[in-house]
Amino acid sequence: MSTTDIVLNVSGVSKRFGGLQALSDVGIQIRAGQVYGLIGPNGAGKTTFFNVLTGLYTPDSGSFALGGEPYTPQAVHQVAKAGIARTFQNIRLFADMTALENVMVGRHIRTQSGLLGAVLRTPGFKAEEAAIAKRAQELLDYVGIGRYAEYKARTLSYGDQRRLEIARALATDPKLIALDEPAAGMNATEKVVLRELIDRIRNDGRTILLIEHDVKLVMGLCDRVTVLDYGKQIAEGTPAEVQRNEKVIEAYLGAGHAAH
Fold this sequence. Notes:
Blueprint: E1 6-17, E2 20-31, E3 35-39, H1 46-53, E4 61-66, E5 69-70, H2 76-82, E6 84-86, H3 99-107, H4 114-120, H5 123-143, H6 158-170, E7 176-180, H7 188-203, E8 208-211, H8 215-221, E9 224-229, E10 232-237, H9 239-244, H10 246-258
Parallel strand pairs: 3-8, 3-9, 6-7, 7-8
Antiparallel strand pairs: 1-2, 1-4, 4-5, 9-10
Helix pairs in contact: 3-5, 3-6, 5-6
GO molecular function: ATP binding
Protein name: ABC transporter ATP-binding protein
Organism: Roseateles violae
């Protein structure tokens, strides 16, 4: 594997909360264009690892490189600027802003005009705002909710709100999109639409880290999977390899799932 193919390279990540060792020496490598899954039973450390990667928690130890460049996950905005965009298990949209405005907020991380331009409404600022709005509309169309651009986020269906979050993440032009339980609360039809969207994003050359409880979705979508249990990495490989792993079957999947 060429090092230039590796989008995210993380090793030796540990995190303790008081007397609880939440993560112990966890690491992953994600190649460009992959959908990479992170699974494990409740309390396995998935969310802690995800939050460390994206700057919500500061790790006790670990090395982090994104696109071949070291980064330090100490703050969410710094991680976003480095090139990781994330969604949340509990939807975090601006409920009383329109769908278009929500995506424009994501895009502003890549703007140049600054506060003075915004206050003075300079020609450069106005041109940039028009370009941002155009790109936001393109992304809404891309995720399949373009017709709802002027709807307030709170009026959208649950599945459409999930897609809006993904559009906002894409607006930052990320090197890596980190999706936190995107299928949570979705019905079967919404999950099919979500899977098609994630496939489309991958096929367009994006790289995705997926944390998800829906094992069937993970195994059907992901190129590689890491399994955590009690904060430790117990397996890593293709979905087929992971499903055959005895430690995984014992810790997480169970005999019923392993047979699928």
